[in-house]
Amino acid sequence: MHAKQWTRLGKHYIAPGHESTCIITYLAEGLDEKSVSIDGQEGDESIQAVMKVSLPKLWKMIHEGKIECGLTLAALNYFFSYLRVVRKQKI
Fold first, then answer.
1. Per-residue confidence at 90, pLDDT binned at 50, 70, 90?
2. What is the pTM of this model?
């Protein structure tokens, strides 16, 4: 997927002390969804589907435990903090 603008939101380590994997989170805006295709993708990290979700629905999904991936939850924490602090958006 292609984006017109990328904003670095933050970085963190999965398990400091015994693992050196660093995760960097970006906000991609102005997405070109037409460029997404499952053809030619490899491995278990491929995009299977794109789902648009409103912020209220996303909050509900988090609070209902429908998002269980720790990396995703960390990335969403960066995203919500960015909206509150940088964009002064009430969420």
1. confident
2. 0.81
